[in-house]
Amino acid sequence: MQHSKSVEECAYYFLIGMATSTLSNNSFLDNYGFAGPGKTMAGDRQKEARVSPKNYIISTSQWPMFKKHVNKIYSHSIKQQLSKKTNTNITKSMVTAARKEVAKQIGPGLLTEYFVPTSHGSHYFAMRKDGLIANGYPDSVFASSKTNKGVGVGLGFQRDHSHGLCQTFAIMWLLISQERTRSIEVSHYKAITKSEWNRQCADWHRRIWKNLVPSEYDGKIYLHNANVALQFLEEFTTYCDWSWDVDELVRELSTIHVDDCPPFHEKSMTALVQGLAEKSGPFKGKVTLSGLFKYLNSDEQKGKYMELWFDDH
Predict the structure, then answer these.
(1) Which DSSP letter does residue 8 get?
(2) What confidence tier does 62 reach under pLDDT thresholds 50, 70, 90?
(3) How many other C-beta atoms are found inside a 10 Å radius of the C-beta of residue 33?
(4) Cα separation values, 32 from 16, 39, 106, 172, 201, Å
(5) Which pTM value belongs to this model?
(6) What is the DSSP string of 167-236?
(7) Closest by CA position to 289, among listed 23, 12, 11, 13
(8) pLDDT at 40
(9) By three-state DSSP, how is residue 88 classified?
(10) Which whole number is the average pLDDT over 88-102?
């Protein structure tokens, strides 16, 4: 339910909108290696779908084709394996092989469904090295992996058709859904060895991933997951960070629309953003993505506004 929002509440909305949208920014994703190899789907060149944030898979033509293509790779592999057997039982090893064939042909990384013609947003999926494609909604979208008929996984961590954190759960799927396996190699702003990064991801697996709860109906569980995701984002972005000059960030914030908010107040937002600027280090004088998430996840701010933001999304 919408309500009239205060300047302070709207400031939180503007900042969390900017922070989460940065995670979907092509430059951010490409810079840190989340796009994957960008392999293309075979077929009509006019309807070719590229698996990369740079080339959205649109819902009116390419996205249904892409889903069909993925399901076909899986089912074709199963049929080929069955043709070499004397019985018709689908074994676990056959399922594993079929999923690996999907991963081989598509490539691990993020998949982006862009909503058209309304152009009101996008939804993120992620393919692991084992071929399983997950998204934060309860619906698996692709043929479900639960029945060994496909690769789709509906995590159920966010309410269906909600927005704001789908890319976060997709990133988690690639990095921390498995304790010992990373499905992509990411680059890092913060210096860290591969073994240190693996230990960090394993810690997030135990402390963050295992604290997420699937649900198809309970708003309180969805809010719990959103708060867990926000904690992950505060920590994750210290390794994969982004930054803005104060004036640049204020200009970008002014372009964000929030229903029932008073007109954007540049002076007060500038004062808030200046207070978030780094006081030392390589980003001195700039506002960082990790700094935004630290502010958004602080007890004072989250306690007042996170649930309100969540209810609006």
Answers:
(1) H
(2) confident
(3) 15
(4) 21, 18, 19, 14, 15
(5) 0.90
(6) HHHHHHHHHTSSSS--SS----SS---HHHHHHHHHHHHHHTGGG----SS-HHHHHHHHHHHHHHHHHH
(7) 23
(8) 38
(9) coil
(10) 94
Q: At 157, list the tokens.
A: 């961590």
For 50, the token pair is: 């590229």
**Residue 71 gets which letter from DSSP?**
H
* Spatial CA neighbour of 171 closest among 229, 86, 91: 229
Q: Strand, helix or coil at 271? A: helix
> Residue 182 corresponds to which tokens in the numbers above?
């990373």
DSSP result, 91-138 = PHHHHHHHHHHHHHHH-SEEEEEEPTTT---EEEEEE-TTS-EEESSS
Report the candidate in 13, 19, 7 with the shortest Cα–Cα distance to residue 237: 19
C-beta of residue 168 within 8 angstroms of C-beta of residue 232? yes
The CA distance from 233 to 227, in Å, is 10
Q: Say which amino acid occupies 267.
A: K
pLDDT tens, position by position, 197-221 = 999 999 999 999 999 999 978 889 9
pLDDT tens, 273-312?
Answer: 999 999 999 999 999 999 999 999 999 999 999 999 988 7
The per-residue pLDDT for range 112-151, each reduced to its tens digit, is 887 654 445 688 999 999 999 999 999 999 999 998 889 9
What is the C-alpha to C-alpha distance for residues 295 and 286, in angstroms, rounded to an integer?
15
